[in-house]
Amino acid sequence: MKKLMELKHHLLVGSTRLIDVRGFWLRNEMEAMQRLPKYENPLSLIPYGRKMFSQNDEDGIVIELFRRIGTTNKTFVEFGCGDGIENSSYALLFQDWNGLWIDGSTKNIDKIRKGLPKTIASDQLKVVESFITKDNINKLISDHINDNEIDLLSVDIDGNDYFVWDAITCISPRVLIMEYNAKFIPPIRYCMEYDPKHMWDYTDHGGVSLKFIEEKVAAKGYSLVGCCLAGVNAFFVRNDLLADKFEAPYTAEKHYEPARPHFAKIKAGHPSAFQTLEQRLKED
Question: 109: which of 30, 92, 129, 136 fits an S-S bond (Cβ 3.0–4.6 Å)?
């Protein structure tokens, strides 16, 4: 058994180095794009994109967003959190944030509970298994989050994202991350019909266009301040926090990024492990 474990570890490390040949090329491609003249405005978020545990370059953008506007309670809510190893808020746990993860997959939630027992027991992270709809989202959040204002809300459920977000009344996030369907370029307005039983079938049926969600969040007091370079997630900041800290105009036409799914293959280092968080040195 010990030899099998050693072989597994060698394969993981070896495959990381092998895949990193492609990952290095992709990282070079992304960094070259970040230096393009269209992103040279110092207020652009694109040059700050970096990957640690996020699907693409969201980690670096989130750090830069809160460097500009500061934090309050360092509380996040992310629904559609996946298996915890790859999402938009896992890196925040290393920065002493606290929050709530919700996911409808038993497999994902079991993996998180097994991998992060200390983090969950300390109440730094709350984890809920539930299929998410516009009818249950407020209870799912309010049962575990007491504050009305939180720093970050991340929405990624591959379909009913807009409808579930629009139904939320129990929290007021300062920053919102929402996935958009990059198939639809501005000024096209697209939104799937609400289907409480929707499961993504890996086609272009699902979600919203960037122009649609830009207009909908504007009606609730938020502005589009950027997208990740991979063309997956959009970032919105509450209007009272904008000042002159972000690149205007706050429109889909300005900030749209096309789909670049290959950027998800960029490697941030060796394979991620929950032990990295669970067994880190905590300084006073």
Answer: 129
Cα–Cα distance, 134 to 195 (Å, whole number):
10
pLDDT tens profile 40-64 = 999 999 999 999 999 999 999 999 9
| Both structure tokens of 112 | 């998180």
**247 class by beta-carbon count within 10 Å (0-12 exposed, 13-18 middle, 19+ buried):** middle
Please tell me the predicted confidence (pLDDT) of residue 23: 74
pLDDT digits (tens, 9 = 90+) for 252-264: 999 999 999 999 8
pLDDT tens profile 160-174: 999 999 999 999 999
Which residues are CB-contacts of 224 (< 8 A; sequence separation ≥ 6)?
A: 210, 213, 214, 217, 218, 234, 235, 236, 250, 251, 252, 255
Q: What is the Cα 48 distance to its own chain's centre?
A: 15
Kindly state the percentage of the chain with pLDDT values over 70: 92
The pTM of this model reads 0.92
Q: Domain coordinates of the chain in residue numbers?
A: 2-276
Distance between CA atoms of 17 and 39, rounded to whole angstroms?
31
